[in-house]
Amino acid sequence: AQKITQTQPGMFVQEKEAVTLDCTYDTSDQSYGLFWYKQPSSGEMIFLIYQGSYDEQNATEGRYSLNFQKARKSANLVISASQLGDSAMYFCAMRDSMEYGNKLVFGAGTILRVKS
Amino acid sequence: NAGVMQNPRHLVRRRGQEARLRCSPMKGHSHVYWYRQLPEEGLKFMVYLQKENIIDESGMPKERFSAEFPKEGPSILRIQQVVRGDSAAYFCASSPFKLNTEAFFGQGTRLTVV
Protein backbone atom coordinates (compact mmCIF):
# COMPACT_ATOMS: atom_id res chain seq x y z
CA ALA A 1 0.00 0.00 0.00
CA GLN A 2 1.07 3.55 -0.63
CA LYS A 3 2.29 5.70 2.22
CA ILE A 4 2.83 9.44 2.53
CA THR A 5 5.05 10.98 5.20
CA GLN A 6 5.05 14.63 6.13
CA THR A 7 7.65 15.07 8.85
CA GLN A 8 7.01 18.73 9.68
CA PRO A 9 4.00 19.13 11.96
CA GLY A 10 4.35 22.92 11.83
CA MET A 11 6.36 25.54 9.97
CA PHE A 12 6.81 29.28 10.26
CA VAL A 13 7.84 31.56 7.42
CA GLN A 14 8.30 35.28 7.14
CA GLU A 15 5.99 37.05 4.73
CA LYS A 16 7.50 37.37 1.22
CA GLU A 17 10.00 34.59 1.81
CA ALA A 18 9.94 31.14 0.22
CA VAL A 19 9.15 27.99 2.17
CA THR A 20 9.50 24.29 1.44
CA LEU A 21 7.08 21.72 2.83
CA ASP A 22 8.44 18.19 2.86
CA CYS A 23 6.73 15.10 1.56
CA THR A 24 8.14 11.62 1.05
CA TYR A 25 6.23 8.68 -0.32
CA ASP A 26 6.50 4.96 -0.50
CA THR A 27 5.29 2.95 -3.46
CA SER A 28 6.30 0.00 -5.57
CA ASP A 29 4.35 1.24 -8.58
CA GLN A 30 6.12 2.73 -11.57
CA SER A 31 3.18 4.93 -12.53
CA TYR A 32 1.68 7.16 -9.86
CA GLY A 33 0.41 10.65 -9.18
CA LEU A 34 1.17 13.09 -6.38
CA PHE A 35 -1.07 15.92 -5.20
CA TRP A 36 -0.84 18.85 -2.82
CA TYR A 37 -3.88 20.36 -1.13
CA LYS A 38 -4.33 23.41 1.08
CA GLN A 39 -6.86 23.42 3.91
CA PRO A 40 -7.43 26.86 5.44
CA SER A 41 -9.11 27.31 8.79
CA SER A 42 -12.48 27.46 7.03
CA GLY A 43 -12.02 23.77 6.28
CA GLU A 44 -12.34 23.34 2.54
CA MET A 45 -9.79 21.37 0.53
CA ILE A 46 -8.13 23.44 -2.18
CA PHE A 47 -6.18 21.68 -4.91
CA LEU A 48 -2.76 23.24 -5.49
CA ILE A 49 -0.63 21.14 -7.79
CA TYR A 50 -0.21 17.71 -9.38
CA GLN A 51 2.88 15.75 -10.42
CA GLY A 52 2.79 12.57 -12.47
CA SER A 53 5.58 10.06 -12.02
CA TYR A 54 6.47 10.22 -15.70
CA ASP A 55 6.42 14.00 -15.93
CA GLU A 56 9.90 15.08 -16.91
CA GLN A 57 9.60 18.55 -15.49
CA ASN A 58 8.66 19.68 -12.03
CA ALA A 59 5.09 20.93 -11.86
CA THR A 60 4.48 24.63 -11.30
CA GLU A 61 1.27 26.59 -10.65
CA GLY A 62 1.79 30.27 -10.00
CA ARG A 63 3.66 30.63 -6.70
CA TYR A 64 3.55 26.88 -6.11
CA SER A 65 6.13 24.48 -7.45
CA LEU A 66 6.84 20.88 -6.74
CA ASN A 67 10.41 19.73 -6.19
CA PHE A 68 10.08 16.17 -7.47
CA GLN A 69 13.00 13.86 -6.75
CA LYS A 70 11.95 10.46 -7.96
CA ALA A 71 15.01 8.52 -6.82
CA ARG A 72 14.59 9.87 -3.29
CA LYS A 73 10.81 9.45 -3.44
CA SER A 74 10.21 12.99 -2.38
CA ALA A 75 7.72 15.57 -3.65
CA ASN A 76 8.30 18.75 -1.70
CA LEU A 77 6.04 21.77 -2.16
CA VAL A 78 7.75 25.12 -2.57
CA ILE A 79 5.74 28.28 -1.98
CA SER A 80 7.48 31.41 -3.18
CA ALA A 81 6.84 34.92 -1.89
CA SER A 82 4.69 33.77 1.03
CA GLN A 83 1.55 35.72 1.82
CA LEU A 84 -0.46 35.92 5.02
CA GLY A 85 -3.26 34.08 3.24
CA ASP A 86 -0.98 31.08 2.79
CA SER A 87 -1.37 30.28 6.49
CA ALA A 88 -3.16 26.94 6.44
CA MET A 89 -2.75 23.17 6.73
CA TYR A 90 -1.06 21.58 3.73
CA PHE A 91 -1.55 17.96 2.74
CA CYS A 92 0.50 15.84 0.40
CA ALA A 93 -1.43 12.97 -1.18
CA MET A 94 -0.85 10.11 -3.57
CA ARG A 95 -3.04 8.00 -5.77
CA ASP A 96 -3.43 4.66 -4.04
CA SER A 97 -3.27 2.71 -7.28
CA MET A 98 -4.09 3.18 -10.94
CA GLU A 99 -6.83 0.60 -10.53
CA TYR A 100 -8.86 2.72 -8.14
CA GLY A 101 -8.79 6.01 -9.96
CA ASN A 102 -8.34 9.08 -7.81
CA LYS A 103 -8.56 7.27 -4.49
CA LEU A 104 -5.98 9.23 -2.53
CA VAL A 105 -3.76 8.44 0.44
CA PHE A 106 -3.02 11.55 2.49
CA GLY A 107 -0.17 12.51 4.77
CA ALA A 108 -0.76 13.88 8.25
CA GLY A 109 -0.28 17.44 7.06
CA THR A 110 1.90 20.43 7.88
CA ILE A 111 0.55 23.59 9.47
CA LEU A 112 2.12 26.66 7.90
CA ARG A 113 2.05 30.00 9.65
CA VAL A 114 3.13 33.11 7.75
CA LYS A 115 4.43 35.92 9.93
CA SER A 116 4.14 39.58 9.00
CA ASN B 1 -20.22 25.45 -13.48
CA ALA B 2 -20.90 24.78 -9.83
CA GLY B 3 -18.32 22.89 -7.84
CA VAL B 4 -18.89 19.79 -5.77
CA MET B 5 -21.81 20.53 -3.47
CA GLN B 6 -22.13 18.91 -0.09
CA ASN B 7 -24.99 19.36 2.29
CA PRO B 8 -25.57 19.97 4.99
CA ARG B 9 -22.41 21.86 5.91
CA HIS B 10 -22.97 21.14 9.58
CA LEU B 11 -24.99 18.32 11.07
CA VAL B 12 -25.69 17.60 14.72
CA ARG B 13 -27.07 14.22 15.68
CA ARG B 14 -27.75 12.58 19.02
CA ARG B 15 -26.22 9.19 19.71
CA GLY B 16 -28.29 6.47 18.08
CA GLN B 17 -29.76 8.66 15.33
CA GLU B 18 -29.07 8.37 11.62
CA ALA B 19 -26.94 10.80 9.64
CA ARG B 20 -27.36 11.31 5.90
CA LEU B 21 -24.70 13.24 4.06
CA ARG B 22 -25.25 14.32 0.47
CA CYS B 23 -22.78 15.00 -2.30
CA SER B 24 -23.64 16.37 -5.72
CA PRO B 25 -20.60 15.99 -7.98
CA MET B 26 -19.64 18.51 -10.59
CA LYS B 27 -21.59 18.31 -13.81
CA GLY B 28 -20.30 15.53 -15.99
CA HIS B 29 -18.42 13.81 -13.16
CA SER B 30 -19.32 10.18 -12.67
CA HIS B 31 -16.63 9.23 -10.13
CA VAL B 32 -17.23 10.05 -6.46
CA TYR B 33 -14.98 9.49 -3.45
CA TRP B 34 -15.81 9.91 0.22
CA TYR B 35 -13.22 10.71 2.87
CA ARG B 36 -13.33 11.22 6.61
CA GLN B 37 -11.16 13.64 8.55
CA LEU B 38 -10.90 13.24 12.28
CA PRO B 39 -9.76 16.30 14.28
CA GLU B 40 -6.06 17.12 13.79
CA GLU B 41 -5.64 14.33 11.21
CA GLY B 42 -5.38 13.90 7.46
CA LEU B 43 -8.17 12.63 5.29
CA LYS B 44 -8.84 8.90 5.21
CA PHE B 45 -10.45 7.24 2.22
CA MET B 46 -13.79 5.59 2.80
CA VAL B 47 -15.44 4.61 -0.47
CA TYR B 48 -15.21 5.09 -4.25
CA LEU B 49 -18.39 4.98 -6.33
CA GLN B 50 -19.44 5.33 -9.90
CA LYS B 51 -23.03 5.70 -10.98
CA GLU B 52 -24.96 2.81 -9.40
CA ASN B 53 -21.77 0.95 -8.51
CA ILE B 54 -19.47 0.70 -5.52
CA ILE B 55 -15.96 0.31 -6.87
CA ASP B 56 -13.96 0.23 -3.64
CA GLU B 57 -15.30 0.32 -0.11
CA SER B 58 -12.16 -0.83 1.64
CA GLY B 59 -12.14 2.20 3.94
CA MET B 60 -15.71 1.89 5.13
CA PRO B 61 -16.37 0.58 8.64
CA LYS B 62 -18.05 -2.81 8.35
CA GLU B 63 -21.13 -1.81 10.30
CA ARG B 64 -23.49 1.18 10.35
CA PHE B 65 -21.94 2.89 7.29
CA SER B 66 -23.25 2.67 3.74
CA ALA B 67 -22.93 4.69 0.56
CA GLU B 68 -24.74 4.93 -2.72
CA PHE B 69 -24.54 6.90 -5.95
CA PRO B 70 -27.81 6.37 -7.82
CA LYS B 71 -28.39 6.92 -11.50
CA GLU B 72 -30.19 10.14 -10.69
CA GLY B 73 -29.45 12.42 -7.76
CA PRO B 74 -26.61 12.93 -5.33
CA SER B 75 -24.35 10.42 -3.70
CA ILE B 76 -25.40 9.62 -0.14
CA LEU B 77 -23.23 8.57 2.77
CA ARG B 78 -25.42 7.09 5.48
CA ILE B 79 -24.39 6.46 9.05
CA GLN B 80 -26.82 4.56 11.19
CA GLN B 81 -26.94 4.65 14.99
CA VAL B 82 -24.25 7.29 15.24
CA VAL B 83 -21.75 7.27 18.10
CA ARG B 84 -19.48 10.03 19.43
CA GLY B 85 -16.54 8.59 17.52
CA ASP B 86 -18.33 9.34 14.24
CA SER B 87 -17.87 13.07 14.87
CA ALA B 88 -15.65 14.24 12.03
CA ALA B 89 -15.57 16.17 8.80
CA TYR B 90 -16.74 14.14 5.82
CA PHE B 91 -15.51 15.20 2.40
CA CYS B 92 -16.69 14.20 -1.00
CA ALA B 93 -14.56 14.50 -4.14
CA SER B 94 -15.49 13.97 -7.77
CA SER B 95 -13.64 13.40 -11.03
CA PRO B 96 -14.73 13.30 -14.65
CA PHE B 97 -12.42 10.41 -15.41
CA LYS B 98 -11.02 7.48 -13.54
CA LEU B 99 -7.53 8.98 -13.58
CA ASN B 100 -7.63 12.75 -13.41
CA THR B 101 -4.91 15.16 -12.47
CA GLU B 102 -7.22 16.81 -9.96
CA ALA B 103 -9.83 15.50 -7.57
CA PHE B 104 -12.36 18.25 -6.93
CA PHE B 105 -13.43 18.40 -3.29
CA GLY B 106 -16.62 19.68 -1.77
CA GLN B 107 -16.55 21.90 1.31
CA GLY B 108 -17.27 19.02 3.62
CA THR B 109 -19.96 18.16 6.14
CA ARG B 110 -19.03 18.53 9.77
CA LEU B 111 -20.86 15.93 11.79
CA THR B 112 -21.13 16.37 15.54
CA VAL B 113 -22.61 13.59 17.62
CA VAL B 114 -23.88 14.71 21.03
Topology diagram in text:
The complex is a heterodimer of chains A (116) and B (114).
Chain A: E1 3-5, E2 10-14, E3 19-21, E4 24-26, E5 33-39, E6 46-52, E7 60-61, E8 64-69, E9 74-79, E10 88-95, E11 104-106, E12 110-115
Parallel strand pairs in A: 2-12
Antiparallel strand pairs in A: 1-4, 3-9, 5-6, 5-10, 7-8, 8-9, 10-11, 10-12
Chain B: E1 5-7, E2 10-13, E3 19-24, E4 31-37, E5 43-50, E6 53-56, E7 65-68, E8 75-79, E9 88-95, E10 104-105, E11 109-113
Parallel strand pairs in B: 2-11
Antiparallel strand pairs in B: 1-3, 3-8, 4-5, 4-9, 5-6, 7-8, 9-10, 9-11
Descriptive notes:
The complex is a heterodimer of chains A (116) and B (114). Chain A is an all-beta fold. Chain A contains no helices and twelve strands. In chain A, strands 2, 5, 6, 10, 11 and 12 form a six-stranded mixed β-sheet that branches. The model of chain A has no long low-confidence stretch (mean pLDDT 93). In chain B, strands 2, 4, 5, 6, 9, 10 and 11 form a seven-stranded mixed β-sheet that branches. In chain B, strands 1-3-8-7 form a four-stranded antiparallel β-sheet, with no helix packed on it. In chain B, β7 and β8 (75-79) form a beta hairpin. The mean pLDDT of chain B is 93. The relative contact order of chain B is 0.33.
